[in-house]
Amino acid sequence: MATEELKIGEISKPRFEFRTFGQDFDDAAFLMGRLSVPVPQKVWERESEEIYILSKANDLNNTKIRDGKMDIKTYVQTVQGMEQWNPLMKGEFPLSAAVLKNEVFSAFMVEAPVLDNAQYTYDEFIEMVKSHPQLQAVRVRKERYGYMVNNTICEVADVYINGAHVVSINSESTEIDDLVKTVNDLGLNGVENINYLQAIKRVIGWIDLPLAN
User: Fold this and answer.
1) Is this structure's pTM higher than 0.90?
2) Rg of the chain taking only CA atoms, in angstroms
3) What are phi and psi of 43, to 5 degrees?
4) Domain holding 111: CATH number?
5) Is the CB of residue 97 less than 8 Å from the CB of residue 147?
6) Domain contains 113
7) Residue-number span of the structural domain to which 190 is assigned
8) Across the chain, how many H-helices and E-strands are there?
9) Do 27 and 187 touch, CB atoms closer than 8 A?
10) pLDDT (tens digit, 0 to 9) for every residue of the chain, 213 residues total?
11) Does 20 map to a domain?
């Protein structure tokens, strides 16, 4: 079976991902830059301001808001240490009460508050999150630098979680073998695979575990 040629920024079939977080991945980042093929200029450097909605009851659905749009991904499986995530829901504010109840709060795995209005703005939704005892909105700023190694989409990022600086490095692909090779080539074999949900919860103290370094 022919492997799929990935293109950064374009939709493909569901990908597997290796990602980790810590303070220092300079050696792996150096190798990533040297091993990378040329990538489109638009992904050389990217910055974004995002809000992640964390739930104490949920580690399976990853919810973030960027530019007034909500994106929820759900964990599918882990194969050879690589995590697969699929889109679960995409929406733009204002969101209807039905979507909030049946898709958003159900993804948080918590009971939805009373929703008397037909729809809710971003600010109204954030107020609901702030008043919910099991939810927390976390500000995440990303400065991302894109590469491509072994036909896997790669990235090094400076990530600021409520202002706390950590470094993330990742590789993703539809092909497990390409992903495993890239992790080995970057010297990341044996490093813990830590997704955004886990990393943010560790930084804000919801999970009593360190980052990878």
Assistant:
1) yes
2) 18
3) -110, 5
4) 2.40.320
5) no
6) yes
7) 42-203
8) 6, 10
9) yes
10) 345 555 555 555 789 999 999 999 999 999 999 999 999 999 999 999 999 999 999 999 999 999 999 999 999 999 999 999 999 999 999 999 999 999 999 999 999 999 999 999 999 999 999 999 999 999 999 999 999 999 999 999 999 999 999 999 999 999 999 999 999 999 999 999 999 999 999 999 999 999 999
11) no
Whether 136 maps to a domain, the answer reads: yes
Angle at the Cα of 136 from the Cα atoms of 132 and 137, rounded to 5 degrees:
125
Whether residue 124 is contained in a domain is answered as: yes
The structural domain count of the chain equals: 1
Are 88 and 61 in contact, with CB atoms under 8 Å apart?
yes
SS3 letters across 12-62? CCCCEEEEEEECCCHHHHHHHHHHCCCCCHHHCCEEEEEEEEEECCCCCEE
Q: Parallel, antiparallel, or unpaired: how do β-strands 152-161 and 164-173 relate? A: antiparallel
